[in-house]
């Protein structure tokens, strides 16, 4: 059986990380048996989650988890799709992961209210006298990462312009389909489903969530993914 190492449920979500939600959606789409355990960042090969262990083989990173499932288990997540559609969906997935992700990180980690409601909970195990110092240090690191990526150099208004253009592109690519793959989900549905479920989390004060909610086809899509793959009430309310 495959073991998925992730953070575990938080914020009313299946996982606080969209990448971990994506990995679990890929496993659900694969139909392969799996179990989920709480991962250890310090022991993870790339110091990041998700990680899977499949019959002794350890695979880190959600994209490489997909590649592993395809190559080892013969799964074609994009079965029946044209080469053009496969390329479009891969580009959509990378847009989510390389741009939209950082906008979500910015909202959760750098906004003081959102940080207190969400990421601050990760540091409860730190002794109280040290906790403010550790939180400040980690938030500075996040700010540097955002600045290094480039997204952190934009104003909040500019970030939302980029987010809106990304969401409009997704609306166009999805069209009137139930899923990106048509009547059944494709590989990129794991990424889109994960990011929309995460982005719609009601815990945070989020301009990004407002942009998603302004696009009914995306909220309806997120609800379909949540009801199909994560039928718990908390996920439905988040979607």
Structure characterization notes:
With 239 residues, the protein is an alpha+beta fold. It folds into two domains: 2-73, Glutaredoxin, CATH 3.40.30; 83-238, Up-down Bundle (Glutathione S-transferase Yfyf (Class Pi), Chain A, domain 2). 57% of the residues lie in helices and 8% in strands. It is built from ten helices and four strands, in the order E-H-E-E-E-H-H-H-H-H-H-H-H-H. A four-stranded mixed beta sheet has the order 2-1-3-4, covered by helices on one side. InterPro entries: FAX/IsoI-like, Glutathione-S-Trfase_C_sf, Glutathione_S-Trfase, Mito_Protein_Transport_Metaxin, Thioredoxin-like_fold, Thioredoxin-like_sf. Residues 18-113 form the Thioredoxin-like fold domain. Pfam families: GST_N_4.
Give the secondary structure arrangement, pairings included.
Elements: E1 2-6, H1 18-30, E2 34-38, E3 51-54, E4 57-60, H2 62-73, H3 83-110, H4 112-117, H5 131-149, H6 156-174, H7 187-199, H8 207-213, H9 216-229, H10 233-238
Parallel strand pairs: 1-2
Antiparallel strand pairs: 1-3, 3-4
Helix pairs in contact: 1-2, 1-7, 3-5, 3-6, 3-7, 6-8, 7-9
